[in-house]
Amino acid sequence: MDRGIPVPPSRPWARAVDQALALDLGLQPFRPRRHWFNGDLQTLRDTLRTVRLGPDQGEPITIPVGGGDQLLALFDPPLQAGREPLALVLLLHGLGGGSDREGLRRMGQTLQQAGFAVLRLNLRGAGAGRPLARGTYAASCNRDLLPVLARARQLADQLAPGGRPLLGVGLSLGGTLLLNALLAGDGSPGLEGLVCISSPLDLDACSRQIERPRNRVYQRWLLRRLLAQTLADPFGVTPAERESLEGRASLGRLRSLRAFDAAITAPRWGYGSVDDYYAKASPLLPLLEGAAARLPSTLLVHAADDPWVPVAPIRRVAEADLRGIDVLITPQGGHNGFHARCDAAAGQGCWGDRLTARWFSRLLGAWPTAAAG
Protein backbone atom coordinates (compact mmCIF):
# COMPACT_ATOMS: atom_id res chain seq x y z
CA MET A 1 0.00 0.00 0.00
CA ASP A 2 1.31 3.47 -0.94
CA ARG A 3 1.62 5.34 2.35
CA GLY A 4 3.21 8.46 0.86
CA ILE A 5 6.36 7.83 2.92
CA PRO A 6 9.66 8.24 1.01
CA VAL A 7 11.52 5.14 2.22
CA PRO A 8 14.35 3.91 -0.04
CA PRO A 9 14.18 0.30 -1.28
CA SER A 10 16.40 -2.39 0.20
CA ARG A 11 20.02 -2.25 -0.84
CA PRO A 12 20.95 -4.72 -3.60
CA TRP A 13 23.61 -6.52 -1.56
CA ALA A 14 24.98 -6.82 1.94
CA ARG A 15 27.85 -4.62 3.02
CA ALA A 16 31.32 -5.98 3.60
CA VAL A 17 31.91 -7.25 7.11
CA ASP A 18 34.23 -4.50 8.21
CA GLN A 19 33.91 -0.94 9.39
CA ALA A 20 33.58 0.67 5.97
CA LEU A 21 29.90 1.19 6.75
CA ALA A 22 30.78 3.24 9.83
CA LEU A 23 33.12 5.40 7.76
CA ASP A 24 30.36 5.89 5.19
CA LEU A 25 28.18 7.26 7.99
CA GLY A 26 30.83 9.67 9.24
CA LEU A 27 31.86 7.58 12.24
CA GLN A 28 35.39 6.61 13.12
CA PRO A 29 35.99 2.83 13.10
CA PHE A 30 35.19 1.40 16.50
CA ARG A 31 38.03 1.57 19.00
CA PRO A 32 37.29 0.64 22.64
CA ARG A 33 37.13 3.43 25.16
CA ARG A 34 40.15 3.75 27.41
CA HIS A 35 40.07 1.34 30.40
CA TRP A 36 37.18 -0.60 28.77
CA PHE A 37 39.39 -2.56 26.44
CA ASN A 38 37.90 -6.09 26.29
CA GLY A 39 34.54 -7.74 25.72
CA ASP A 40 33.71 -8.23 29.38
CA LEU A 41 34.46 -4.66 30.37
CA GLN A 42 32.51 -3.35 27.38
CA THR A 43 29.55 -5.55 28.38
CA LEU A 44 29.62 -4.43 32.02
CA ARG A 45 30.34 -0.72 31.59
CA ASP A 46 26.74 0.45 31.97
CA THR A 47 26.47 -1.67 35.13
CA LEU A 48 29.76 -0.53 36.64
CA ARG A 49 29.44 3.14 35.74
CA THR A 50 26.12 4.94 36.18
CA VAL A 51 24.66 6.43 33.02
CA ARG A 52 23.43 9.96 33.72
CA LEU A 53 20.16 10.29 31.86
CA GLY A 54 17.90 12.40 34.06
CA PRO A 55 14.30 11.54 34.96
CA ASP A 56 12.30 9.28 32.68
CA GLN A 57 9.66 11.49 31.04
CA GLY A 58 8.18 8.91 28.68
CA GLU A 59 4.40 9.02 28.16
CA PRO A 60 2.86 5.66 29.21
CA ILE A 61 0.87 3.85 26.51
CA THR A 62 -0.85 0.53 27.14
CA ILE A 63 -1.30 -1.92 24.26
CA PRO A 64 -3.91 -4.74 24.51
CA VAL A 65 -2.50 -8.10 23.41
CA GLY A 66 -5.50 -10.37 24.05
CA GLY A 67 -6.94 -12.24 27.00
CA GLY A 68 -7.22 -9.05 29.03
CA ASP A 69 -3.42 -8.62 29.06
CA GLN A 70 -1.67 -5.39 28.14
CA LEU A 71 1.91 -4.38 27.44
CA LEU A 72 3.30 -1.07 28.65
CA ALA A 73 5.24 1.18 26.30
CA LEU A 74 6.70 4.65 26.88
CA PHE A 75 6.53 7.29 24.15
CA ASP A 76 9.34 9.85 23.81
CA PRO A 77 9.05 12.73 21.29
CA PRO A 78 12.10 14.27 19.57
CA LEU A 79 14.13 16.38 21.99
CA GLN A 80 13.87 19.48 19.80
CA ALA A 81 10.49 20.99 20.72
CA GLY A 82 8.12 21.56 17.82
CA ARG A 83 10.13 19.42 15.42
CA GLU A 84 8.19 16.92 13.30
CA PRO A 85 9.71 13.48 13.88
CA LEU A 86 11.64 11.84 11.06
CA ALA A 87 10.05 8.51 12.05
CA LEU A 88 8.85 6.49 15.02
CA VAL A 89 11.34 3.94 16.35
CA LEU A 90 10.02 0.91 18.25
CA LEU A 91 12.76 0.04 20.75
CA LEU A 92 12.94 -3.40 22.41
CA HIS A 93 15.07 -4.45 25.37
CA GLY A 94 16.91 -7.73 25.85
CA LEU A 95 16.70 -10.65 28.28
CA GLY A 96 15.98 -9.53 31.83
CA GLY A 97 15.62 -5.90 30.76
CA GLY A 98 12.89 -3.28 30.58
CA SER A 99 12.12 0.20 29.30
CA ASP A 100 14.05 1.79 32.17
CA ARG A 101 17.40 0.06 31.54
CA GLU A 102 20.25 2.55 31.11
CA GLY A 103 21.49 1.29 27.75
CA LEU A 104 17.99 1.25 26.28
CA ARG A 105 17.20 4.77 27.53
CA ARG A 106 20.52 6.08 26.24
CA MET A 107 19.81 4.61 22.79
CA GLY A 108 16.37 6.21 22.91
CA GLN A 109 17.75 9.62 23.84
CA THR A 110 20.33 9.44 21.04
CA LEU A 111 17.54 8.74 18.56
CA GLN A 112 15.45 11.58 20.02
CA GLN A 113 18.41 13.94 19.65
CA ALA A 114 18.64 12.90 15.98
CA GLY A 115 14.99 13.83 15.40
CA PHE A 116 13.18 10.54 15.93
CA ALA A 117 10.22 9.77 18.17
CA VAL A 118 10.75 6.60 20.22
CA LEU A 119 8.42 3.96 21.65
CA ARG A 120 10.17 1.93 24.37
CA LEU A 121 8.34 -1.35 24.92
CA ASN A 122 8.25 -3.49 28.05
CA LEU A 123 7.84 -7.08 26.90
CA ARG A 124 5.40 -9.38 28.70
CA GLY A 125 6.26 -9.49 32.39
CA ALA A 126 9.10 -6.99 32.12
CA GLY A 127 9.80 -3.75 33.96
CA ALA A 128 6.95 -1.46 34.95
CA GLY A 129 4.58 -3.51 32.79
CA ARG A 130 4.81 -6.54 35.10
CA PRO A 131 1.33 -5.96 36.67
CA LEU A 132 -0.44 -5.66 33.31
CA ALA A 133 0.10 -9.10 31.78
CA ARG A 134 0.38 -12.65 33.01
CA GLY A 135 3.39 -14.77 32.17
CA THR A 136 6.69 -13.90 30.51
CA TYR A 137 8.05 -13.36 27.02
CA ALA A 138 10.01 -15.61 24.66
CA ALA A 139 12.40 -15.16 21.73
CA SER A 140 9.44 -15.63 19.43
CA CYS A 141 6.18 -14.24 20.80
CA ASN A 142 4.34 -12.93 17.76
CA ARG A 143 0.95 -12.94 19.43
CA ASP A 144 2.32 -10.14 21.61
CA LEU A 145 4.48 -8.37 19.08
CA LEU A 146 1.99 -8.19 16.20
CA PRO A 147 -0.51 -6.07 18.18
CA VAL A 148 2.43 -3.89 19.26
CA LEU A 149 3.49 -3.39 15.63
CA ALA A 150 -0.09 -2.51 14.70
CA ARG A 151 -0.36 0.06 17.50
CA ALA A 152 3.06 1.48 16.69
CA ARG A 153 1.97 1.89 13.08
CA GLN A 154 -1.08 3.85 14.24
CA LEU A 155 1.14 6.12 16.32
CA ALA A 156 3.53 6.65 13.38
CA ASP A 157 0.59 7.61 11.18
CA GLN A 158 -0.46 10.23 13.75
CA LEU A 159 2.94 11.93 14.07
CA ALA A 160 2.53 14.23 11.06
CA PRO A 161 0.28 14.74 8.04
CA GLY A 162 0.77 11.78 5.72
CA GLY A 163 2.28 9.72 8.51
CA ARG A 164 5.87 8.85 9.30
CA PRO A 165 7.93 5.67 8.77
CA LEU A 166 8.01 3.00 11.47
CA LEU A 167 11.48 1.69 12.32
CA GLY A 168 12.66 -0.89 14.84
CA VAL A 169 15.68 -1.40 17.10
CA GLY A 170 16.22 -4.57 19.08
CA LEU A 171 18.97 -4.83 21.68
CA SER A 172 20.14 -8.40 22.21
CA LEU A 173 17.08 -10.70 22.44
CA GLY A 174 14.85 -7.77 21.45
CA GLY A 175 16.36 -7.97 17.97
CA THR A 176 15.61 -11.69 17.81
CA LEU A 177 11.94 -11.01 18.61
CA LEU A 178 11.66 -8.40 15.87
CA LEU A 179 13.38 -10.64 13.33
CA ASN A 180 11.05 -13.53 14.13
CA ALA A 181 7.95 -11.35 13.87
CA LEU A 182 8.98 -9.94 10.50
CA LEU A 183 10.21 -13.27 9.09
CA ALA A 184 6.80 -14.80 9.82
CA GLY A 185 5.54 -12.78 6.85
CA ASP A 186 1.83 -13.08 7.62
CA GLY A 187 0.83 -9.71 6.20
CA SER A 188 0.82 -7.93 9.56
CA PRO A 189 2.15 -4.37 9.88
CA GLY A 190 5.89 -4.33 9.30
CA LEU A 191 8.75 -1.87 9.52
CA GLU A 192 10.56 0.35 7.05
CA GLY A 193 13.92 -0.35 8.66
CA LEU A 194 15.43 -2.54 11.40
CA VAL A 195 18.63 -2.49 13.48
CA CYS A 196 19.60 -5.49 15.65
CA ILE A 197 22.52 -5.08 18.05
CA SER A 198 24.19 -8.14 19.63
CA SER A 199 21.10 -10.23 18.80
CA PRO A 200 21.12 -14.06 19.05
CA LEU A 201 20.35 -15.78 15.74
CA ASP A 202 20.96 -19.31 17.04
CA LEU A 203 19.49 -19.82 20.53
CA ASP A 204 21.12 -23.21 21.09
CA ALA A 205 24.58 -21.82 20.29
CA CYS A 206 23.87 -18.83 22.52
CA SER A 207 22.77 -21.08 25.39
CA ARG A 208 25.94 -23.15 25.06
CA GLN A 209 28.06 -20.00 25.08
CA ILE A 210 26.48 -18.57 28.23
CA GLU A 211 26.98 -21.96 29.95
CA ARG A 212 30.75 -21.83 29.51
CA PRO A 213 32.53 -21.75 32.90
CA ARG A 214 33.95 -18.28 32.23
CA ASN A 215 30.37 -16.95 31.91
CA ARG A 216 28.93 -18.37 35.13
CA VAL A 217 28.60 -14.92 36.73
CA TYR A 218 26.64 -13.62 33.75
CA GLN A 219 24.35 -16.63 33.78
CA ARG A 220 23.64 -16.33 37.50
CA TRP A 221 22.81 -12.63 37.10
CA LEU A 222 20.43 -13.25 34.19
CA LEU A 223 18.83 -16.21 35.93
CA ARG A 224 18.19 -14.24 39.12
CA ARG A 225 16.45 -11.54 37.12
CA LEU A 226 14.30 -14.05 35.23
CA LEU A 227 13.33 -15.93 38.39
CA ALA A 228 12.36 -12.72 40.19
CA GLN A 229 10.44 -11.46 37.16
CA THR A 230 8.51 -14.72 36.88
CA LEU A 231 7.72 -15.10 40.58
CA ALA A 232 6.54 -11.47 40.75
CA ASP A 233 3.64 -12.29 38.40
CA PRO A 234 0.53 -10.85 40.14
CA PHE A 235 -1.60 -13.38 38.26
CA GLY A 236 0.35 -16.22 39.89
CA VAL A 237 2.23 -19.23 38.59
CA THR A 238 1.13 -22.86 38.44
CA PRO A 239 2.10 -25.19 41.29
CA ALA A 240 4.47 -27.07 38.98
CA GLU A 241 6.10 -23.82 37.84
CA ARG A 242 6.51 -22.64 41.43
CA GLU A 243 8.20 -25.91 42.38
CA SER A 244 10.68 -25.44 39.53
CA LEU A 245 11.26 -21.76 40.25
CA GLU A 246 11.84 -22.39 43.94
CA GLY A 247 14.09 -25.42 43.32
CA ARG A 248 11.66 -27.96 44.80
CA ALA A 249 11.09 -29.98 41.64
CA SER A 250 12.75 -33.34 41.02
CA LEU A 251 15.61 -31.74 39.06
CA GLY A 252 16.41 -29.34 41.91
CA ARG A 253 17.43 -25.71 41.42
CA LEU A 254 17.33 -24.13 37.98
CA ARG A 255 21.02 -23.48 37.41
CA SER A 256 21.07 -22.42 33.76
CA LEU A 257 19.10 -20.42 31.23
CA ARG A 258 18.50 -23.66 29.33
CA ALA A 259 16.92 -25.19 32.43
CA PHE A 260 14.74 -22.10 32.89
CA ASP A 261 13.62 -22.25 29.28
CA ALA A 262 12.89 -25.97 29.61
CA ALA A 263 10.79 -25.49 32.75
CA ILE A 264 9.10 -22.17 31.96
CA THR A 265 9.55 -20.60 28.53
CA ALA A 266 9.10 -23.58 26.21
CA PRO A 267 5.90 -24.99 27.78
CA ARG A 268 4.34 -21.53 28.26
CA TRP A 269 4.71 -20.75 24.56
CA GLY A 270 3.57 -24.14 23.28
CA TYR A 271 6.89 -25.78 22.38
CA GLY A 272 7.36 -29.50 22.87
CA SER A 273 10.76 -29.13 24.53
CA VAL A 274 13.55 -26.66 25.04
CA ASP A 275 15.31 -28.04 21.95
CA ASP A 276 12.10 -27.53 19.95
CA TYR A 277 11.90 -23.95 21.25
CA TYR A 278 15.50 -23.14 20.40
CA ALA A 279 15.17 -24.59 16.91
CA LYS A 280 11.89 -22.89 16.00
CA ALA A 281 12.61 -19.52 17.65
CA SER A 282 16.06 -19.07 16.07
CA PRO A 283 15.96 -16.81 13.02
CA LEU A 284 19.24 -18.02 11.48
CA LEU A 285 17.93 -20.80 9.21
CA PRO A 286 14.91 -18.81 7.96
CA LEU A 287 17.29 -15.98 7.09
CA LEU A 288 19.60 -18.30 5.16
CA GLU A 289 16.76 -20.23 3.47
CA GLY A 290 15.05 -17.30 1.77
CA ALA A 291 12.83 -15.65 4.38
CA ALA A 292 15.18 -12.64 4.53
CA ALA A 293 13.28 -11.26 1.53
CA ARG A 294 10.45 -10.46 3.98
CA LEU A 295 12.64 -8.07 5.96
CA PRO A 296 12.94 -4.33 5.42
CA SER A 297 16.40 -2.80 5.03
CA THR A 298 18.22 -4.29 8.02
CA LEU A 299 21.46 -3.67 9.89
CA LEU A 300 22.98 -6.40 12.08
CA VAL A 301 25.70 -5.15 14.45
CA HIS A 302 27.85 -7.54 16.45
CA ALA A 303 31.22 -7.64 18.21
CA ALA A 304 33.57 -10.56 17.65
CA ASP A 305 34.43 -10.55 21.38
CA ASP A 306 30.79 -10.68 22.60
CA PRO A 307 30.98 -12.97 25.66
CA TRP A 308 27.23 -13.81 25.58
CA VAL A 309 26.23 -14.28 21.95
CA PRO A 310 28.58 -16.13 19.56
CA VAL A 311 29.60 -14.27 16.41
CA ALA A 312 29.63 -17.33 14.12
CA PRO A 313 25.90 -17.15 13.15
CA ILE A 314 26.30 -13.47 12.22
CA ARG A 315 29.29 -14.35 10.06
CA ARG A 316 27.17 -16.94 8.25
CA VAL A 317 24.63 -14.25 7.41
CA ALA A 318 27.41 -11.97 6.19
CA GLU A 319 28.89 -14.72 4.04
CA ALA A 320 25.47 -15.41 2.51
CA ASP A 321 25.47 -11.82 1.18
CA LEU A 322 21.71 -11.46 1.67
CA ARG A 323 19.93 -8.77 -0.26
CA GLY A 324 19.01 -5.74 1.85
CA ILE A 325 20.95 -6.79 4.96
CA ASP A 326 23.97 -4.80 6.14
CA VAL A 327 26.27 -6.66 8.54
CA LEU A 328 28.84 -4.86 10.66
CA ILE A 329 31.13 -6.95 12.87
CA THR A 330 33.64 -5.10 15.00
CA PRO A 331 36.67 -6.88 16.50
CA GLN A 332 35.76 -5.54 19.95
CA GLY A 333 32.70 -4.10 21.64
CA GLY A 334 31.35 -6.81 23.96
CA HIS A 335 27.65 -7.57 24.32
CA ASN A 336 25.64 -4.46 23.53
CA GLY A 337 28.60 -2.38 24.65
CA PHE A 338 30.28 -0.42 21.84
CA HIS A 339 31.71 2.23 24.16
CA ALA A 340 34.25 4.02 21.96
CA ARG A 341 37.09 6.49 22.43
CA CYS A 342 35.17 9.08 20.43
CA ASP A 343 32.07 8.92 22.68
CA ALA A 344 33.06 11.79 24.97
CA ALA A 345 33.77 14.12 22.06
CA ALA A 346 30.49 13.20 20.38
CA GLY A 347 28.53 14.09 23.50
CA GLN A 348 25.51 11.92 22.73
CA GLY A 349 25.23 8.18 23.22
CA CYS A 350 27.80 5.47 22.67
CA TRP A 351 29.22 4.48 19.28
CA GLY A 352 26.50 1.87 18.69
CA ASP A 353 23.76 4.39 19.49
CA ARG A 354 25.16 6.94 17.04
CA LEU A 355 25.67 4.29 14.37
CA THR A 356 21.99 3.37 14.66
CA ALA A 357 20.77 6.96 14.43
CA ARG A 358 22.97 7.71 11.42
CA TRP A 359 22.05 4.51 9.58
CA PHE A 360 18.35 5.30 10.03
CA SER A 361 18.84 8.90 8.95
CA ARG A 362 20.58 7.80 5.77
CA LEU A 363 17.91 5.20 5.13
CA LEU A 364 15.28 7.91 5.23
CA GLY A 365 17.27 10.25 3.02
CA ALA A 366 17.78 12.71 5.86
CA TRP A 367 21.48 12.12 6.45
CA PRO A 368 23.39 15.45 6.63
CA THR A 369 27.05 15.75 5.74
CA ALA A 370 28.97 15.73 9.00
CA ALA A 371 32.44 15.36 10.35
CA ALA A 372 33.50 12.01 11.80
CA GLY A 373 31.93 11.41 15.23
* Order of strands, widest sheet: 1-2-4-3-5-6-7-8
Binned strand content:
5-15%
Question: What is the CATH class designation of the largest domain?
Answer: Alpha Beta
Poorly predicted runs are 1-16, 369-373
CATH structural fold name of the largest domain: Rossmann fold
Q: Return the average pLDDT rounded to an integer.
A: 90
Rough outline: globular
Euclidean distance between termini CA atoms? 37 Å
Largest sheet: 8 strands, mixed
- Reported CATH architecture of the largest domain: 3-Layer(aba) Sandwich
Percent of residues in helices comes to: 25-40%
Brief rundown of the structure:
The protein has 373 residues and is an alpha/beta fold. It is 36% helix and 13% strand. Mean pLDDT is 90; it is low at 1-16 and 369-373.
Could you walk me through the main structural features you see in this protein, from its secondary elements to its overall organization?
This protein has 14 helices and eight strands. With 373 residues, it is α/β, with parallel strands linked by helices. The two termini are 37 Å apart. The longest helix has 16 residues. Helix content is 36%, strand content 13%. The relative contact order is 0.19. α3 crosses α14. The chain has an eight-stranded mixed beta sheet with strand order 1-2-4-3-5-6-7-8, sandwiched between helices. The chain has two domains: 265 residues, Alpha/Beta hydrolase fold, catalytic domain (Rossmann fold); 69 residues, no CATH class.
